[in-house]
Design brief:
Blueprint lengths: L1 E14 L2 E7 L10 E6 L9 E4 L2 E2 L5 E7 L3 H7 L6 E8 L11 E5 L4 H12 L5 E6 L16 E6 L6 E2 L2 H11 L7 E5 L2 H13 L3 E5 L15 E3 L10 E3 L6 E3 L8
Parallel strand pairs: 8-9, 8-12, 9-10, 10-11, 12-13
Antiparallel strand pairs: 1-2, 1-7, 2-6, 3-4, 3-7, 5-6, 13-16, 14-15
Helix pairs in contact: 3-4
Bound molecules: flavin-adenine dinucleotide and FE2/S2 (inorganic) cluster.
Flavin-adenine dinucleotide binds next to strand 4, strand 6 and helix 1.
Length: about 260
């Protein structure tokens, strides 16, 4: 992990209010699912930096980008940055999607798409197959989908049927299971809003798929000192302790490790 200041290279409009915020390197080698804490060099409006998945990275690390949708003061400040202004990056942080799980099925909603571009690029280079299932309310909500052309098999779903499969991304997953495009025993990597991740984990459990979730927990420090990011967990990885810090032991967990309060 390191902290460094990077000039903004450009803002690339992905539609639907989302941007790829591209910064000059050097960007350290990063595994898909790992994240950086970001804040602008000037005029950062809040006390703490904010966590973002690395969206893309030049093979030589000469630039990197983050997929950002302005929803609050931190994301608005990043989206308002002008070329030449600088952004602080701390990272890479956290535990990635398991590299040993081959040919993953990636299920994304909204900015949950962010970890999967780097993943699709790396797996494509390793001659692996990446299936991307990307769901949104309408075509406009599928910001970033075009970036996957040629490196992943893209299956889109929209609630209003304006693009791809009509229905939720869980219905799309069931449809692909029915067609044999997705099969029992394979691994699903999922990132998106909590209700979507809960629903995807349930489908995976019912159909014999392993399921790994990347949590977008609110974080304060990003490297294990504040206890601001804990979730309830179970399983041998945690040695009997019922809580886990998502910034160091996550953000990626196997779905069966997470304990939900009902
Ligand atoms: C590992 C990780 C990777 C992430 N990657 C991305 C990414 O690639 N792109 C992206 O746009 N965002 C990403 N996020 C989410 C982003 O860091 C947060 O939404 C961040 O809080 C936004 O900061 P803000 O100052 O703009 O808004 P804030 O003021 O922090 O939040 C705006 C509103 O959203 C609510 N909110 C924020 N986060 C959460 C949460 N986790 N749970 C419930 N409510 C919440 C707040 O309560 C507030 O109402 C990631 C988060 C994590 C943990
Ligand atoms: S964000 Fe501080 S311990 Fe995880």
């Amino acid at each position: 992990m390191q902290t460094s200041l990077h000039p903004l290279r450009r803002l690339r409009d992905l539609g639907g209010g989302s941007l790829a915020v591209e910064v000059d390197g050097p960007i350290p080698a990063t595994l898909p699912g790992q994240f950086f804490m970001l804040r602008t060099g000037e005029r950062w409006p809040v006390l703490l930096p904010r966590p973002f998945s690395l969206y893309d990275r030049a093979d030589d690390g000469s630039w990197g980008s983050f997929l950002i949708k302005a929803i609050g003061p931190g994301t608005r400040a990043l989206a308002d940055t002008q070329p030449g202004e600088k952004i602080w990056l701390t990272g890479p942080l956290g535990r990635p999607f398991p590299p040993e799980e081959r040919d993953p099925i990636c299920v994304a909603g909204g900015v949950g798409l962010a970890p999967f571009l780097l993943l699709a690029r790396q797996r494509h280079r390793q001659r692996q197959r990446t299936r991307l299932l990307f769901g949104g309310r309408s075509r406009a909500a599928l910001a970033g989908i075009d970036d996957f052309a040629g490196i992943a098999e893209v299956h889109a779903s929209t609630d209003d049927g304006s693009h791809g499969f009509r229905g939720m991304v869980t219905a799309l997953l069931l449809d692909l299971l029915g067609k044999g495009t997705v099969r029992a025993g394979e691994s699903v990597f999922c990132c998106g809003p909590d209700p979507m991740m809960v629903a995807v984990a349930k489908v995976c459990e019912q159909h014999g798929l392993r399921c790994f979730l990347s949590l977008e927990t609110y974080m304060a420090c990003g490297y294990g000192v504040c206890n601001g990011c804990t979730v309830k967990v179970q399983g041998p990885r945690f040695h009997g302790w019922p809580y886990s810090k998502t910034c160091t032991e996550g953000p990626v967990y196997e779905a069966c490790e997470l304990v939900h309060d009902h």
